[in-house]
Each structure stands twice: as C-alpha cells, then as structure tokens.
Known about the structure:
CATH superfamily: Peptidase G1
Order of helices and strands: HHEEEEEEEEEEEEEEEEEEE
Radius of gyration: 16 Å
Amino acid sequence: MSATIRLTAATAVAAAVLSALATSPAAAAAAPALRMTPVSGHISSHHLVGGIRNSTSSNWAGYAATGTTFTSVSASWVQPAVSCTSKTTYSSFWIGIDGDGSNSVEQTGTEADCSSGRAVYSSWYEMYPAYPVNYSKSVSAGDHFTSTITRSGTSYTLTLTDTTKGWTKTTKKTQRGLANASAEVIAEAPSSSSGVLPLSNFGTANFTNATANGQAIGNYSPDKINMASGSTTKATTSSLSGGENFSVTYDHS
C-alpha cells in the first residue's frame, strides 16, 4: 500500500440526503450530504506487527487488504446501536473494493446516526465519487447483515442482506477505469463537503467472515486501521481472530 492515502472531498452539497434522515423534517434540516470517502490524509504510525500493518486514519477503522487485484469482498456484521446526545453525529459500516490509495470506492453498508437525540438507522450503496444511494428498507439496531461485492471486468454487483428482517438489495453497476487494488471492511465517520463529520457513539461493531477474493482477509497481511484525529483516538480496531473476525470500538476518551 502506498504510504500516502488520499482524501477526495466532495466539491458540492448533493441535492438529496440519506432518505432515512429525510423522513424527519428536523433531521433533514440538520443533515449534510453524506459521503463514504477514501481513507483520508496521510497514514501515520505505519508499521508492521506480526505481519499486520498498523495505521491511523481520520475517518476509517477496520481492515484493508492490498497487494493484488480484487474481484470480491464480503463480511457480516451486527448493526450497532448508537448512544445519542443532543449532538448530530454519524457512523457507517460497510465493505468495499478500492478506496485505499485510490479516488474511487465501490461499497455498500449501513448507517447509524444521531439527530436531535434520536437514533436513525439506514442502508445504502455508493460508487464513489458519486453520492450514496439509500435503500428504503427498514434497519434496526441489532439487525444481522451479510454483504458481498463481486466484480467481473468493469461490472460490479453489490449485495446487502438484512438476515434479521429478511430483505436483500442487489445493485449492479458498470464503471470503467477503476483500480480494484484494495478490499476493505470498515467502520467510518462519514464526510460532507466540509470534511469528516462527528462520529456517533456506536459502542462496538462486530465484523465476521471478512474475506477478499474468497480468502480470509488476514491472508493478505492487511492494514489494521484505527481512527484518530491528531492525538485523539476516535475508534480502535481489534486484532483478527481466525483471519476474518474483528471488532471496532468507539473510543469514549
């Protein structure tokens, strides 16, 4: 992985916000146009520990595999319950191809936000740098999700399943010129045109069965990424268990 990881910020506010937030007038008024963006800034604390690269990012926490061309990524997770105050905050949980060292990400996942003290949950896909597209399906804290993204040439199939509620959304997109050079499973502080947004207190997000190209993500000596801003840690990623299971924990400090 390149030591320089770039952020492509949104250059304008999109006309539409997340549809789950738009159902509430108060939430819609407060919500910026969200982006799930490439990992931001320069990777810091970039070092090897037991064959795993350790890094920090201002907006990502989780694992990113590089070193080959990727045709698939998959994982499962439990939708975290956010603890809300009066502040408006945001968090996303997703899988993707690209984004680590490139200016595109092909991704799908879930959202857990706080608006005026109220928890708001939703799901989406995004072919960054295009804006996210929300699914209209209901999402609740504690729902179990499985997700897979597959690529054949320039065709991408993004599948997200809520196994608790029994729904599946599959989106097929064609896009040329993408690097397909990373695969990741991530908890993120989303961004707007003004930069990284405040992170929701999501407690702990548990990811299981994280694979890339049909193998455990740990087989790629992936980058373990903690989320931090300056000296403040925002979320911490655990070690891999069995090469494909890990958690990301919100930092309360």
